[in-house]
Fold this protein.
Amino acid sequence: FSNPHFIGNRSVITHLMEWKYDDIGDECERFLGPYGYGGVQVSPVNEHAIMDGRPWYEWYQPVSYDIHTRSGDEQQFRRMVQRCNKAGVRIYVDIVLNHMTDGQSGLGTNGHHYDGVAMQYPGVPFGPNDFHGHETCPTNDLEIHNYSNRIEARNCRLVGLRDLKQQSEYVKQKQVDFLNHLIDIGVAGFRSDASTHQWPDDLRSIYSRLHNLNNEFFTENSHPFIYHETIYYGGNGINSNEYTSLGRIIEFRFYKEITNVFRNNNQLRWLRNFGTEWGLVPSGDALVMIDSHDLRVGHTGQLGFNINCFEARLLKAATAFMLAWNYGIPRVMSSYFWDQIIRDGKDVNDWVGPPTDQHGNILSVHPNPDMTCNHEWICEHRWREIYNMVKFKLIAGQEPVNNWWDNGDNQIAFSRGNRAFIAINLQKNGNDHDKNLQKRLQTGLPPGIYCDIISGNLINNRCMGKSIQVDKNGLSDIYVGHDEFDAFVAYHIGARV
Ligand code: ARE
Ligand code: CA
C-alpha cells in the first residue's frame, strides 16, 4: 500500500482542493500530464453535510458513500478518472472513514437526509448501533479530550463528529464497498483522513478486503496507495509508526522542521543530513508537504508558523527544497483565494469555502496565457518556480545528493548526481555582501550553459531568465542576491542551451 503507481519517473502529487471534476480532467490533459505531475489528491468525493455558509470543512462530515459533491456527480468523477489516467496522472481520493457528521440534522449533497443527534444516516444506512458510545468511549461527553490517550483518541468523538464503530462487521463492509467502488472506477489510492482516530487493526482488516487496482490502467496485482493522516511531532502523542505498516504516513515532522528552517529559526546548513537522522520515518514510509488544506488556515498546526500562498517567496523556497531533496513523496497544495484576516492568532476566515457563483456553484478554473489561474484559484502548482522544480525532481530521478556546500549559516547548495543543481539563499545576517550568495561552486553538471529555470524558461534555445556557464570541471559562478525575487536558483541537464 505504499507504492503510488506513478507513471514513468513522475513523483509529485498536487492537491487540487475542491476543484470540479471536469476541471481536474482538463487540468490533467492540458497541464499536469505535460508538466510531469504524477497524481492529484481530490477532496472527499462522497456525499457530505450541507452547512450554513458552505464552509470548506463540511466536506469532512460524511452523510453517505454516494459519489456526489459540488465537484460533480459519479459520472463526472468517472470521466475525470479516465481522462487523468490516460494523461499519465493518478487520482487519490481523500477518504473520511472515522466519522459521519456532528450533532446537526439536514440534507447532504446527494439529497439524503441525516440526523446526527439520533445518529441516523439512511443514505448508507447507518444507525445508532454503528457508532461508539459509552461502552467504548471513556469520556463523559463522548468527546476526545486527551489526544494522547489511545482509547479515547480512537473511540471518542473528534470535535463532535459521530464516531463510527469500525470494529463492527457491518460498518467495515460498508466502507470496504465504498473503497472498492472507487478502486473499480480506476483510482490509484487514498488519503486516509483522521487515521490516528482509527485503530490500525480495523484499517488493516478493511484494507485486506480491497480489490486490486483496475487493470485497464494498472498492472496485475497492484494494491491501492494509502497515505495516513497521523499528526505526530514526537513526544507523547500516538506515534505515527503504528501506521507505517499500513501504507505511508504524512510526515508532519517534515513540514515542521522545514518550516522552522525556512523561517530562519534554524540554520539551513543543518539540512545537510535531513531525514531519518532528524527522527523522521524512513523515506519510503513518508508523504511530505509544506502546506495543506488544514495548515493554510491554521488547522493542525500553529497559524503564523505555517507557510501558505500569502507568503509566496517563502512558500516557493521551502517547496523547492522539498522537491530537490530526495525524501518521501511530495505533495504540493493548490488552494483558492480567501480573505485571510488574523486576529488573536486565529484566521477569522479559516472556514471560507471554494469560490462560487451566486447560486453556490463552484467556479471553473480558467488558466491565463502566463500559466497562472483566474484570481479565485491560486494554482500554486502552476507557478513557474514550482512546476519547474517538479521537472527538476523528474530529471534528478534517484540520483543521490552530492556536492553539498554551505556558508556555515543560511546559504546552501547541492547537486543531484550529475543531473541537477540548486542553491538557496536565506541569509539574513551580515552586510549586503555577506547576504548575497556569490561563490564559485562545484555543480556536478557536465560543461555547458544552463538556464536558471526559476527566473525563466528555456525557449527557442534561449534562457528567459538567468543563466550560468559550467566549466569542464563542473565549476560555475553561482549568484543569488539576498533581495532577489526568488531566494533560489536551479539548473538541470534538461535546460541546457
Ligand atoms: C468543524 C468545526 C468544529 C466543530 C466541527 C463539528 O471547526 O469546531 O466542532 O466542525 O461541527 C475539518 C476541519 C474542522 C471541522 C471538521 C468537520 O479542520 O475544523 O470541524 O473538518 O467539519 C485533529 C485530528 C486530525 C484532524 C484535525 C482537524 O487528529 O485528524 O484535528 N484533521 C482531519 C482533516 C481536517 C478535518 C478532519 C480531520 C475531520 O485534515 O480537515 O477537519 O474529518 C493536535 C493533535 C491532533 C489534532 C490537532 C488539531 O496537533 O495532536 O491530533 O488534529 O491538534 O489541530
Ligand atoms: Ca474513531
